[in-house]
Amino acid sequence: MTSPTSSPVLGLGYAFLGFALFAAHDAMIKALGEQYSVFQIIFFAMLFAFIPMALIMLTDKSEANFRPRHPFLVLFRSALNILAMSSAFYAFTTLPLAEVYSLLFSTPLLITIFSVPLLGEVVRAQRWIAVFAGLVGVVIVLRPGVTDFTLGHAAALIAALASGLAAILVRKIGSQERSAVLILYPMLLSMVLMGAALPAVYKPVALEDLALMAVVGVLSVLAQICVIGGYRSAPAAVVAPSQYSQIIWAAIYGALFFTEEPDVYVGLGSAIIIASGIFVVWRESRKDVSTVNPVLKTSNPRFDAGPSPRPTADFDTELAG
Question: What pTM, to 2 d.p., does this model score?
Answer without folding.
Answer: 0.85
